[in-house]
Specification:
By secondary structure, the protein is an alpha+beta fold. The protein has 3 domains: 121 residues, Methyltransferase, Cobalt-precorrin-4 Transmethylase, Domain 2 (2-Layer Sandwich), CATH 3.30.950; 233 residues, Heat Shock Protein 90 (2-Layer Sandwich), CATH 3.30.565; 65 residues, Arc Repressor Mutant, subunit A (Orthogonal Bundle), CATH 1.10.10.10. Helices cover 36% and strands 21% of the residues. It is built from 16 helices and 18 strands. A 6-stranded mixed beta sheet has the order 10-9-13-14-16-15, covered by helices on one side. A hairpin with a 2-residue loop joins strand 11 and strand 12. The radius of gyration is 30 Å and the shape is elongated. It starts with 9 loop residues before the first strand and ends with a strand. InterPro entries: RecG_C_sf, Schlafen_AlbA_2_dom, Schlafen_AlbA_2_dom_sf, WH-like_DNA-bd_sf, WH_DNA-bd_sf. Pfam families: HATPase_c_4, HTH_24, SLFN_AlbA_2.
Length: 433
């Protein structure tokens, strides 16, 4: 029986005596197509001749592939009977180019494996660094629906043609399979999008974990934005006959940081972006450092080199991102360059709170006598005038009546101050300083 001809994606070997050459072909096909099939027990012309099989044959092939193809891949290895002859089929997929075989790099050309020159290898590495991996990697599940994404398009005033929608939005790879971007935008997926809240300034004590994933990324992004808007409290202060209002944090800066994290993260690495809320700040972390052709100065100026260009295009069509590049400069104008911690494999954006929420202070300092600057100010006022009233504290500090009462309650719970006597003729005692 004849099973066809060798191509850029298919290689035939007579026996596992040619295992080294076969592994070279696998790496070569991965570098060209991100995919390849190798048969043992088949002649170069496609005639099936069979292959001797032992108890350890498949295991030895698997071990050799693991040892000699780098970065490591996980092959699918099958024993098949074709015309009652033993044939071994090996199928590989990978997106982390370039792949080496026995320390050398090859590229498939027709049915040949050609070793790459240093220049060609550098070109491959540069191309890989800027390629749109999301559109190349197949989705782990191929039964997907996109009703929520289509609704988002209609809501944005765009026309949805059911017959061409998936092709027009780039939801399939070159093999006609749903890609990783499709998985992100599908109605259902297993991608976790979390907002995690901690009691203090570190991750020692977790308060709650809100899960917004498992669905279309557009929906998840909106849910996170809605939640963060709901906790963005306004502090009202009265002083010098003026009323001032201040939000806990700048929502526009958070929105830019969060949407950028979702658009530019390296989703193929398996670490979704996340939001961490501490007592004094918010952190938004995403996977992947800056693109190889973008330096920090360019980044700070708002110059964009999309990691996931087709995903960014979809977000642009839906009105989630603009091409003006104002997002990063906006964050810097509010919080400075120190808001960005740019690492080799991660980008962390820190948005500090404009004031310390009193419930956060209580959580962080539970069972301790430590106090923050705001509380210390109130203690200082009391030390200077033990008979000071709440109204006078409001006037002196510029804080609201309710906020002063919360601070006093916190100080009493920490046994920093005590109240002796009634409201009218009583006085404050500073127990600890």
């Amino acid at each position: 029986m004849n099973i066809g001809v060798e191509t850029e994606k298919i290689e035939f070997k007579k026996t596992t005596g040619e295992l080294r050459e076969g592994i070279t072909s696998l790496a070569s096909m991965l570098n060209k197509n991100g995919y390849g099939i190798l048969y043992f027990g088949v002649k170069d012309n496609g005639d099936v001749i069979g292959q001797q099989m032992g108890d350890r044959t498949l295991r030895e092939i698997s071990k050799a592939i693991a040892n000699f193809i780098k970065p490591q891949i996980i092959p699918t290895i099958e024993h098949k009977l074709i015309d009652d002859k033993n044939v071994i089929k090996i199928e590989v997929r990978g997106s982390e180019k370039p792949y080496s075989a026995y320390g050398r790099y090859y590229m498939r050309s027709a049915d040949e494996d050609r070793e790459l020159s240093p220049t060609a290898l550098k070109e491959l590495m540069d191309k890989q660094a800027t390629s749109d991996i999301l559109t190349l990697v197949p989705a782990p599940v191929q039964t997907l629906s996109f009703n929520k994404l289509k609704i988002a398009y209609v809501t944005a005033g765009l026309t949805v043609d059911q017959s061409t929608f998936e092709d027009n939005t780039g939801l399939k790879n070159n093999d006609g399979k749903y890609n990783l971007m499709a998985f992100l935008l599908a109605d259902e997926n297993d991608i976790s999008i979390k907002v995690v809240t901690f009691a203090g300034k570190d991750k020692t004590k977790l308060i709650k974990r809100n899960e917004y994933g498992g669905t279309c990324l557009i929906t998840s992004i909106d849910k996170v934005l809605d939640y963060m808007e709901s906790i963005n409290e306004t502090m009202v202060t009265m002083g010098n006959h003026r009323r001032t209002e201040e939000k806990l944090f700048d929502m526009a800066s958070f929105k830019e940081a969060w949407q950028n994290a979702c658009i530019h993260t390296k989703w193929d690495k398996g670490n979704p972006p996340a939001v961490y809320i501490f007592s004094d700040r918010i952190e938004i972390i995403s996977t992947g450092g800056l693109p190889v052709d973008l330096n920090k100065d360019e980044f700070y100026k708002g110059i964009s080199k999309p990691v996931n260009s087709k995903l960014q295009k979809i977000f642009g069509q839906l009105g989630y991102v603009e091409q003006t590049g104002h997002g990063i400069p906006l964050i810097i104008s509010n919080y400075g360059k120190q808001a960005f911690d740019i690492m080799e494999n991660f980008v962390n954006v820190t948005i500090p709170f404009n004031y310390i929420k009193q419930d956060s202070v209580s959580n962080e300092t539970e069972n301790t006598a430590s106090i923050n600057e705001t509380e210390q100010r109130i203690v200082d006022y009391i030390s200077q005038n033990s008979g000071i009233t709440i109204k006078e504290l409001v006037s002196a500090s510029g804080y609201s009546d309710g906020y002063i009462r919360k601070i006093l309650t916190s100080l009493k719970e920490k046994k920093i101050i005590e109240r002796q006597g009634g409201n009218r003729y009583g006085k404050w005692i500073v127990v600890k300083r």
